[in-house]
Amino acid sequence: MLHIESVIGRIPRDLQPEFDPTIVIIDDASSDATATVASRALEASDLTYPWEVLANPLNLGYGGNQKLGYRYAIAHGMDVVVMIHGDGQYPPEATAAIARAALGAGAAFGSRFGKSNGARAGGMPRYKYVGNQLLTRLQNRLLSTDLTEFHSGFRAYSVNTLRQIPFDLCANDFHFDTEIFIQCIRLGIDIAEFSIPTRYGDEVCHVNGIRYARAVVGQSVKSKLQEFGLSYERKYDIHPPDDPYESKIGFDSPSESALDAVPDGSRVVDFGSSAGYLASQLAGRGCTVMCVDREFPRSWVEHPSIEFVKGDLDDGIPDIIGDVDVVLMLDVIEHLRAPERFVAQLVDFCKEHRVRQLHVSTGNVAFLPQRLMLMLGQFNYGPRGILDMTHTRLFTAASFRRLWEQSGFVIEGFEGIPAPFPLALGAGKAADAMLTANRGLIKLRRSMFSYQIFATLRPPVDLDDLIDASRLQGNALTATSNAPNL
């Protein structure tokens, strides 16, 4: 009880006029009369700020208590929330500094490791120091961050940030702090950090270290797996408002394979062209490209040789004028409600427009990690990857081949594509090594180790045209041999 009185006594008295602060103390169904002690301390203090003490009728847990505080801030139109533990371990004196940082960046926290040996000098036990540093390094690697500490309890969030993240879906336990950080990272929110003094006194720690470490690492891994489409957590289904379509040129991908295969100067139709990155590359090689997609992309690459046609392929192929040399349909077929019907329409399209070649691709649902996840009872759709939520049909290498062969298309090339490690890991040695290993495994067994399948097709033979060509060929041969016409 003495700790909360001390914390109240250390709250700065000079926050105004820069801020218009409100003090909210939340008693999480404690058994030590925290609400009563806090109320008396506030009444007896010389603080001039408005204050309120909330007493939960049931224990919400460490994370649940924060959720209540953040909802309070949103409901009352606050600008920024500063969380201060009631045990006195963190410095209320730094309230203004952390509030400024959070308003500028979106989120902020005080790091006990910003200064050399500051944490140990402040009384942090050696085992906590080592554990904290190991967890922080591991989480930095998993989440592509560069923070000095992940586990400080002195935090601040702008209310604008809180409105954009589903923090109510985070855990009620102590690893809530990690989960809400991951949400901020996935949203693209900057996290400001600054050094704070470390103070360990006689407060009792209720955190089970092993359980906590397992939880924070587990959540960091799940967030990373979600980028691969191998896991899905609703609380991490967050993207920046201007999250652009990612270019898949420059490493092993269907886009790169198509770029290599399309001859310079071709007339190309790109079904499902998205932002037009591939079309832009082809236009630079003298190709004329007609891009077809349901909506005009937010990030569009302007080029005089690129035309955009709005069309939903589920409703049929839009009208296109003139002959076409090459058709591209990369990672599109799995989005269609009736792929077989569309492929039948594509046969007529190829005949009408004298298409010479097609390049098509799809995700391979029989990719080994997907098989392993299924064995564990996991079949998790997510915002991207093989189990993208927008996919309506899934294919293995064999079923993808059958889809085209049964409509008369001739398979001229059929290759496995590795997982997009550069997108998940960033360009570098690690991604290159993973790509090399994946390529080797694809050679051993394409159906199991291919993340995607890329096929080069020749349109079905037009029998009417073939009859005419056969007649001409037959006439030529019989004329040469002086044989009578049949």
What does the largest sheet look like?
7 strands, mixed
Number of strands: 13
Fraction of helical residues: 40-55%
CATH superfamily of the largest domain: Spore Coat Polysaccharide Biosynthesis Protein SpsA, Chain A
Determine the oligomeric state from the structure: single chain
CATH level 3 topology of the largest domain: Spore Coat Polysaccharide Biosynthesis Protein SpsA, Chain A
Shape: elongated
Report the total helices: 18
CATH architecture of the largest domain: Alpha-Beta Complex
Unreliable spans: none
Total tally of structural domains: 2
Strand neighbour order, sheet with most strands: 9-8-7-10-11-13-12
Mean pLDDT: 87
In summary, what is this structure?
The chain is of the alpha/beta class. Helices cover 40% and strands 15% of the residues. The protein has helices at residues 2-9, 34-44, 61-75, 95-105, 118-121, 126-143, 159-164, 176-187, 209-228, 254-261, 277-283, 339-353, 368-375, 397-405, 421-425, 429-444, 446-449, 463-480; strands at 23-27, 51-55, 80-83, 106-111, 155-158, 190-195, 267-271, 288-293, 306-310, 326-330, 357-363, 410-417, 452-458.
Account of the protein in words:
By secondary structure, the protein is an alpha/beta fold. It folds into 2 domains: 2-236, Spore Coat Polysaccharide Biosynthesis Protein SpsA, Chain A; 254-465, Rossmann fold (3-Layer(aba) Sandwich). The protein has 18 helices and 13 strands. The chain has helices at 2-9, 34-44, 61-75, 95-105, 118-121, 126-143, 159-164, 176-187, 209-228, 254-261, 277-283, 339-353, 368-375, 397-405, 421-425, 429-444, 446-449, 463-480, and strands spanning 23-27, 51-55, 80-83, 106-111, 155-158, 190-195, 267-271, 288-293, 306-310, 326-330, 357-363, 410-417, 452-458. The strands form 3 sheets. The protein has a 7-stranded mixed β-sheet with strand order 9-8-7-10-11-13-12, sandwiched between helices. The chain has a 4-stranded mixed β-sheet with strand order 3-5-4-6. It has a two-stranded parallel ribbon with strand order 1-2. Helix 11 links the parallel strand 7 (267-271) and strand 8 (288-293). Helix 1 packs parallel to helix 2 and helix 6 (126-143) packs parallel to helix 9 (209-228). The longest helix has 20 residues, at 209-228. The chain is elongated and about 120 Å long. It starts with a helix and ends in a 6-residue tail after the last helix. The mean pLDDT is 87.
